[in-house]
């Protein structure tokens, strides 16, 4: 008789088959369960989304979350110590400053603001911050390709902006058209020298003016004499290039030495883009004549001159860390008109 038993230790063929089938069955069952769960989760998300989009109906629980959670007394509103400012237009900061401020308060606030965001890019923000986002009339002496005006006009909302520039620049034209096309304010372009354009403006006309035309000592002094009376009381008068070479950082004002910031060095970008004669690493052209004119003019009026650091790394704007990168842009000066 044939022994149908298999050798010991070897599984029977039908039991191997059973194990295989069971494994396949369990795997399929798991996959099915997983898919079903995923599908149910998707449905839940879709219906939650639908609910969030639909209008609430009368039968809806008006405050379901309050019901679920133990009711907590609402925290009292903190006392408001500042007045609301006028309706903001463009990018004004989410802060309010007193509507009526003395010039001293205004200057202290402006100074604090500019010591944090100390670049000329912050001028439009400063105007917004001071509640001057609708600066009635702004202007710029020396516009070149419109880089600064572009920035100012994108971040503040003057009713009118005067650009005083004797020479047409291609980029400037393009920018002017773009800006004028986008915004509702008036841009007036005066293809003229500042000394000739001055007679076009009444006294107390400007709320903001940026002086960046000719930078010689006498020309800056002339622009200040001509345009200071054109400024409204409490307006911001500002200008570019308030700095000197290392050897010209001390300027004589009213019989005293005043220290001005260092202009820095030309970088290779500067060399490539603007000045063929300027080699990277060489000290930038001194603007001490410009700075001295500004300091002398305002010294006579007993007005404080502030200036930007343009992200110069040292906290003290007058002390430069020789190992830190030097910013490309020269500092700007600014003051509050009295
Ligand atoms: C340094 S660029 C101005 C740059 C511009 N403010 C900016 O930051 O984007 C100087 C400009 O002043 C102009 N300029 C020179 N003398 C001037 C004057 N007396 N009145 C007005 N503009 C003058 C020059 O034609 C030049 O385009």
TrEMBL record:
Chain positions covered by the region annotation Disordered: 49-91
The protein's name in its UniProt record: Methyltransferase domain-containing protein
SUPFAM superfamilies, per the entry: S-adenosyl-L-methionine-dependent methyltransferases (SSF53335)
Species whose genome carries this gene: Vitrella brassicaformis (strain CCMP3155)
Residue stretches of biased makeup (Polar residues): 49-60
InterPro entries: SAM-dependent_MTases_sf
Highest taxon of the lineage: Eukaryota
First and last residue of the signal peptide: none
